[in-house]
Amino acid sequence: MSTGNTFLGFLAGAATGALAALLLAPDSGANTRAKIRKGASDAAGLAKSKILEGLDIIEKALEEK
Q1: Which of 14, 25, 39, 53 shows the greatest Cβ crowding within 10 Å of its Cβ?
Q2: Domain ranges across the chain
Q3: What pTM was estimated for this model as a whole?
């Protein structure tokens, strides 16, 4: 599980850095909020696809036993 924890830590750090860059960039509030919404939507889609992939792997492993 340490590889999984390392990967999650990396993703959390990358997301934090991206959010900080958006908030500190000289842009209007409306543009910044739109960028944050798009990033959150993209991240949610990626998380959903990874969860579904994981569930498929678990289902296949259970079928084999």
Answers
A1: 39
A2: 2-64
A3: 0.53
